[in-house]
Write a structure and sequence with these properties.
5 strands; 48% helix; alpha+beta; five-stranded antiparallel β-sheet
Length: 214
């Protein structure tokens, strides 16, 4: 079981962490080393998320490696480096698509102010469709919407509706991760269960996403 935890208010790879019963990873420092350790251990369940975290690194780091404090540079194999570079474009597009689809909804049935919520939802949908630019960031599993200004404009009921849709899109992103990494060995690892544990103020503040093979 893996936990991926973005830190409040930050979107840089170095503030992401990954933990399991046997391994804790700081992305900026340990991502490449984690892939190499997984390769040596032969634990295939750890491979998809380890490769995913490497794909969050900038292209120069993916190619040239990470030099820890001990001065010994950690590098990916050529195969893994190319895999992560190719995955970056797919993950960026999937992140944009996930955010667009999350907002494609009407006010929920028990909305307390359907006029206001419909206006917010329609405005947000239009802004995503008409915006020519997007943030070139490959972390498709990050949860930005439920901290956004637009989300806070919705009534509490619709906020939970958006959070539920986002969780649905995140589940889909998890399931597509092996194919997005385009690695033949991962083809049989498509069945994952993804759950969200509440933190702070309910579903609109979800922070932990758990990946486990079923």
């Amino acid at each position: 079981m893996w936990k991926v935890a973005p830190v409040h208010g930050e979107i840089r790879p170095r503030v992401l962490s990954l933990s399991s019963p046997v391994l804790v990873v700081d992305v900026e420092r340990d991502a490449i080393r984690a892939v190499n350790v997984v390769r040596l251990s032969g634990d295939t369940l750890m491979l998809p998320i380890s490769l995913y975290l490497c794909a969050l690194l900038d292209p120069v780091t993916i190619v040239s490696g990470i030099e820890p404090n001990n001065g010994q540079c950690d590098r990916l194999t050529d195969t893994d480096a190319l895999l992560c570079l190719d995955a970056r474009a797919t993950l960026m597009l999937r992140r944009v698509k996930r955010i667009q689809r999350t907002w494609l909804m009407e006010p929920v049935d028990d909305c307390v102010d359907s006029y206001r919520c419909a206006k917010v939802l329609n405005s947000t949908q239009r802004s995503h469709l008409t915006n020519r630019d997007f943030v070139a960031w490959s972390h498709v599993l990050f949860l930005p919407i439920t901290n956004s200004k637009d989300h806070r404009k919705l009534c509490k009921v619709c906020q939970k509706g958006v959070a539920a849709r986002e969780l649905e899109e995140l589940r889909y992103a998890w399931k597509q991760l092996p194919s997005d990494l385009d690695y033949p060995f991962l083809a049989g690892m498509r069945r994952f269960h993804v759950s969200c544990s509440e933190s702070g103020r309910g579903t609109s503040r979800c922070r932990w996403y758990i990946l486990e093979q079923v």
